[in-house]
UniProtKB/TrEMBL annotation, chain A:
The chain crosses the membrane at residues 12-32, 44-65, 85-107, 143-160. This is Cytochrome b. It is found in: Cell membrane. Keywords: Cell membrane, Electron transport, Heme, Iron, Membrane, Metal-binding, Transmembrane, Transmembrane helix, Transport. The keyword Amino-acid biosynthesis does not apply. Residues 7-176 form the Cytochrome b561 bacterial/Ni-hydrogenase domain.
From TrEMBL, chain B:
PANTHER family: PROTEIN YCEI. Pfam families: YceI (PF04264). InterPro entries: Lipid/polyisoprenoid-bd_YceI, TTHA0802/YceI-like_sf. Keywords: Signal. Gene3D superfamilies: Lipid/polyisoprenoid-binding, YceI-like (2.40.128.110). This is Polyisoprenoid-binding protein. Residues 1-25 form the signal peptide. SUPFAM superfamilies: YceI-like.
Length: 180, 197
């Protein structure tokens, strides 16, 4: 089968759902961490966890779509090194989209706070309560998040560069509305 | 034949009370009143955003006198060092010291004084008493299970208290959609019988 010119509709939908959730969860995470303890903080932490778990849930259809639907080939004008960097970035982004929420969930378990999804569904604790492990997982969550932040930045910058400077179809394939 | 029966009956009538006394010796009388402080546990679970969070108190001073033969005469007094709380996280531990929560500077100790104990059958009892936290006194009732093991008895029980009745978590924290009003408290206390004098 020839590579299509567009991402499939399900791929576009699930990409943007995850994108929006990640773009909300990231600043929310940094903001809430700096707050002193208050009812608001507890509420924001819960929302942050719910968003993270939703991203994990959405990753399942994301992966299925990625593996079952043909992916458009990079535009012809793209040099080899850019293709290589793009595919590495995408693989690492996928890994971090799982790794960041998963490390957050584990950290929450280790700190003795089970996650109750949407305040309704108690999720299993991934590890037992352990203060030292909790601190370690907090560092891991922060480190992975920094990595995610950098890669998301790179991903957005590259998409905009393709659209604005190269004026090619790279971004349009994921944003059909932009079709020129 | 007849004299033999008589002898047997006499023997039995002699031995039976002795056997009774033997059983009595294995389960000696006396009150449990020597509390083993290292065994004390006061745990609690509260819900924040519907997430159960476990905590406990590290220091509780318990005085009790429990006589299995006269349970109604039981007396219990608890002095709980509220500063010894572990509310589940370092953040929470520094928060609960303040005025909206326990206001430790003014009210460092919570007390419970039993007023009545009634047997529910078997090793189960119902204890009622006055619980004072943060200057507010409320009646609480809790089931207690007593497990006797020789000269040691373990007392286990638990009840639910409403934190807002004691103004625990005042002001902005009184929003029960964030931190629920109900706090499940459970306790474990062990005591030995007074050393035979």
């Amino acid at each position: 089968m020839n590579a299509p010119g567009q991402y499939s509709k399900p791929a576009v939908i699930v990409h943007w759902m995850i994108a929006i959730l990640v773009l909300v969860a990231l600043p929310l995470g940094y903001y809430m961490t700096d707050l002193s303890l208050s009812p608001r903080k507890l509420q924001l932490i819960s929302w942050h966890k719910w968003i993270g778990f939703t991203v994990l849930l959405l990753f399942i259809p994301r992966l299925i779509v990625r593996l079952t639907r043909p992916v458009p080939a990079p535009v012809d004008t793209m040099p080899g090194w850019q293709r290589a960097v793009a595919s590495i970035t995408h693989v690492v982004l996928y890994a971090l989209i799982i790794g960041v929420p998963l490390s957050g969930w584990m950290m929450s378990s280790a700190k003795g706070f089970p996650v109750v999804y949407l305040g309704l569904v108690p999720l299993p604790d991934l590890v037992g309560k352990d203060e030292a492990l909790g601190d370690l997982l907090k560092s891991a969550h922060e480190l992975l998040t920094s990595g995610l932040l950098i890669l998301v930045g790179l991903h957005i910058a590259a998409a905009l560069k393709h659209h604005i400077i190269d004026r090619d179809e790279t971004l349009v394939r994921m944003v059909p509305l932009l079709k020129r | 034949m007849n004299s033999k029966r008589l002898l047997a009956a006499a023997l039995v009538s002699l031995i039976l009370p002795l056997a009774g006394a033997g059983a009595y010796a294995a389960q000696p009388a006396g009150s449990f009143d020597q509390v083993l402080p290292a065994k004390n546990r006061i745990d609690f679970v509260f819900k924040q955003m519907n997430v159960p969070v476990k905590g406990h108190f590290k220091k509780a001073n318990v005085n009790l006198v429990f006589d299995p033969a006269a349970p109604a005469k039981t007396t219990v007094r608890l002095d709980l060092d509220l500063g010894s709380i572990d509310a589940g996280s370092a953040d929470a531990n520094s928060e609960v010291v303040g005025k909206p929560w326990f206001d430790l500077k003014t009210f460092p100790t919570a007390t419970f004084v039993s007023s009545s104990v009634k047997p529910l059958g078997g090793d189960r009892y119902e204890m009622t008493g006055k619980l004072t936290i943060k200057g507010k006194t409320r009646d609480v009732t809790t089931p207690v299970t007593v497990t006797q093991n020789g000269n040691t008895a373990a007392f286990d029980g638990g009840f639910t208290l409403n934190r807002l009745e004691f103004a625990i978590g005042d002001g902005t924290w009184s929003d029960t959609s964030i931190v629920a009003d109900e706090v499940k408290v459970s306790f474990h206390v062990e005591a030995e019988r007074r050393a035979a004098k």
